[in-house]
Amino acid sequence: MEWQGGSIPALSSTDQNHKGWNVEGESFTFMNKVKQSGLWPLVEYNFMTLNSPIITAMVERWHLKTNSFYFPFGEMTITLNDVTQIVGIPVMGKAIYGSTSMDIDEAAELVKECLNLSMTEIREELRLHNGCALKLKWLRGKLANKSSLLPEQHIDFVVRGYLLFVLGCTIFSDKTGSTVPTSYLRYLVDVQNTHTFGWEAVALAHLYRQLGIASRANCKQISGYGCTSIFLSSVLHQVLHTLTRVLELIDGYDVVIFQGCRRIQLR
């Protein structure tokens, strides 16, 4: 982290626990479609507790130019294989790319097509975010627990809204913790083919970018919510494993490492 003297305060990250969309009230068809989308693992990670000390410790070691962590024993980074092992969303597939900025008319048409809501309501919501995003609370309020009340052919509208909600709570969470880019609906139009996109690749690219931003001296917060904590905790686990093996070679050498709130004694 680029800073000049003094202690570094722990980075904050918006807690999404209060934004939960309870799927217990959704229909059987809804649940099947969500599980077949390839994004179900994100649902399970949606309410993980954040570990700010771990996140901050890892960000301090991040180098923007190489997208890797610098440690005394060498460099480490997060790879696509790590994402596969940790999260389990699709890595192979069609590319997800392009700007998240959208014209309000284009965004309104996309939301109307995907979610089948009132155009008046859609435009009112989009105007609050320059046509580029939807509020997570708004999505939940409009679509949560509606699938059990809809005919079979309309359930996809709720599924798309839920998947967008999950993306906004996890891998594409921003610093506000309250909105999600409208543009990601482009990849949810055909619910049956959502799993054909390379979500892991774009998740990793997004994480690299957020780590780069968070490594700046004036940054106090990091985006990415649960997945950020998952990835960085995994890397730290590998670091501790490496240190343990190194210290085992040093006879009689004791060191205490603090992992989160747990004290670990290594010999």
UniProtKB/TrEMBL annotation:
One of its GO terms (biological process) is meristem maintenance. It holds the Pfam family PMD. This is Aminotransferase-like plant mobile domain-containing protein. Residues 42-224 form the Aminotransferase-like plant mobile domain. It comes from Acorus gramineus (Dwarf sweet flag).
